[in-house]
Amino acid sequence: MSTDLKQFLSNWTNNVAYFDMLQLLARLSKLFSENSTPYLDYRIAENVFCKYFSAKNEARSCHAFDAKLDSIGVGIKTFILKANGTSVEKIAEFDKLKAELDPLSDFRLAKKLAEFRNKGIDAAVNILGVDDRQYHIVGRMQNLLRIFNSPYEKIDISSIKMEKSNSVNTIRFSDDKNLYVFNRSKSVLMQQFRCPRNYKDVPVDVIEDPYEVLAKCFKRKISTKKLLSNEEAENYVILPLYSTRDKEVPQKSGLNQWNAGGRDRDEDEVYISVPKFIHNKFPDFFPKGSFNLELPNGQCLSAKLCQQGAKGLMSNPNKALGKWILRDVLKKEPGELVTMRDLNILNIDSVKVAKLRSGNYKISFSKDYQSYENFIAGE
Fold this sequence. Notes:
This protein has about 375 residues and is α+β, with helices and mostly antiparallel strands. It has ten helices and 18 strands. The chain has helices at about 5-10, 15-25, 40-50, 100, 105-130, 210-215, 275-280, 320-330, 340-345, 370-375; strands spanning about 55, 65-70, 70-80, 85-95, 130-140, 145-150, 160-165, 170-175, 180-185, 190-195, 200-205, 235-240, 270-275, 290-295, 300-305, 310-315, 350-355, 360-365.
């Protein structure tokens, strides 16, 4: 366990402002729900955690973690807790690999899911450059929030055993620490979370008429203009990691540029495609010359658009970007081609490049809802 994680686990219950804000927001539950259990949107849980623990919000750029707190990758979840303090919640989705998973027998399927899940966690660790990981849970129960932390563990493939399932559409399996449930039709992997002995209860007196309270609080017109911090993006584009012609990773260009002929090439040589759509729609997004490109792990590279028609985003030296993507994130061996399956396992097929107010640019991997296809469709 890292020093940062030890410190967090020792001190988190002392963050009075954090609990006060969660309580306040949960008291407004009837803006959204008539249920007696307090309601808290997952985005609110993520944002409040990041604000009051001074963590970096990674919810829109990382698949496994929602925040980076010093050297800790944090998965933040909010859900309704049963009276026994348990809940089974989604932790991963493998819809793009459904054709590969469907034919597998239950035990082989469990092992393959564990393999994919573990690769996703490893990739997130390498993307953000964190040393440890942890789940932070805001459990919702009648008239209170029960808040706790839970180990963020990989699945121990060697100890997998099958558990009884009450549905032909699901399999249940466990390792030596956790219970997992996989829904075959939805390709969703879930994990059972259990509240530990060390938790923090925040009582919630839900306000009966939150509309009246808000009306009294705001007597003047509220500005909806968004205020940006120095690090926040003014705008961004989404770039595909695959060919838009056949939706495959080209064998001799893009992430496999190192495999192209014509001259000797470094084993880490890559570029990220910048389609004509991006140039036409956002002609002034990228500068003409070099610019600073920040990686999610904090490293900063010199980058520019290269090749005919400025069709490729590359770093200088070129191998710097390739080392990060090929070796650190995808864990590919030198000479091993990147395929669409590799991207599907990690549930990434595009990158988001954001222009920051500082003048720098920042790159991160995009989730499904920020894929290139959705971006050009305006979704």
